[in-house]
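Model it.
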Amino acid sequence: MVNDGRAIVDEVSGWLRVYSDGSVDRTWTGPPEVKFLSEPVPPHSDFIDSVATHDVTINKESGLRVRIYSPKEIKKLNGDDCENKKKLPIILHFHGGGFCVSQADWYMYYHVYTKLAKSVPAICVSVYLRRAPEHRLPAAFDDGFEALLWLRSLSLAQAQARENNWLTEHVDFQRVFLIGDSSGGNVVHEVAARAGHADLSPLIVAGAIPIHPGFLRQERSKSELENPQSPLLTLDMVDKFLSFALPLNSDKGHPYTCPMGPAAPPIDGLKLPPFLLCVAGNDLIKDTEMEYYEAMKKAGKDVELLVSPGMGHSFYLDKIAVDMDPNTAAQTCSLFQGIAEFMRKH
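Modeled.
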C-alpha cells in the first residue's frame, strides 16, 4: 500500500499508520461518526459550561505543554477574603492511547475532565505526553514526572512568596492527585514511584488514580481470551501499540507494563501514596489489573478498588455510549463519584 510514494509498513486499524520513511500518520480512518472524539478542542479563557482551559508550555526547550482546566469555582476564591477560602486540589492527568495515539486536547478527554474538574471541584492539569513510535518509553513517563516537578516549582515559588499567579493563587499544592486513563494509568504508577524517592516539598502527592491501566503480562490472560473486544481496546491494539512503545527488544513483561512482575522493582520497596484502582468488569485486561491490585495489597499498600460491572475498557471516554446508553451513563456517574469521594478523603 503506497501513499505519496511512501509504503505503509505497519498500522493499527483506524488509529495509526507507520510509513517506510519513518513518518507516522495519526489521522482517524475508522467510522466517521466517532471521529469527533479524536478532534482537538482549542483552549478557551471564557468559562464554557463552567470550565475555562489554558495551554501552557512548561519547558521551552523541549516544548512540553500542559492543558489546564479551571472550574468556575476559582472565581469564588477571588476577593479580599481569599485567604479564608478553601483552595482547590490539583488533578495531574496523563492521557491514554497505548502510548502511541491521542493527546491532551482531544475531545474524548475534554468532555470527561471538564466534568471532573467542576464536579470535584479541582484544577486539572493534563500533560501533552510524547508518543511512540517516535518517542519510545520512558519518554511519556519522563514527561509526566517533569510536569509534577513543574508543579513543585510553582509550590516553592508560592511558599517563598516569589510568585503569585492565577494558578498558584487558587490551588492546594499539598493535595495533588495523579490520574491516568489506560496507558496513562501506567504513567500514574511510574510517576508515583519516582515521587516516592524525590524531595517534592512543599508539594504532596496525596493520591493516585489509575483508571483501567495497561498492566499486562507476555502471556494472554483469561480475560484477554474471553472478554469482548471494544472500539477502545482490541488485542491487535494491545500488541501493536506496545511493540511501538516499549524499549527495543522488550516484551510485555517489562516493568513499564508489568509493574507487579518479577522484572519490576518490588512493590513493597516503593513509597507510594494512597491508590484508587479503577477496573471495568468486562475489560480485556481486567485479570492483570487485578493482579496488580493483589500485589499492592500483599505489599501492604493503601489501595482501594472501584469496579464498574459489565463495562469495557475506557467506557466513560465514549461520549456516544454515555449519551445513548443509560447504563453506561450511570456507570460513568458512579466512576466520577468514586473518584471525587476518594479525593475528598485525602
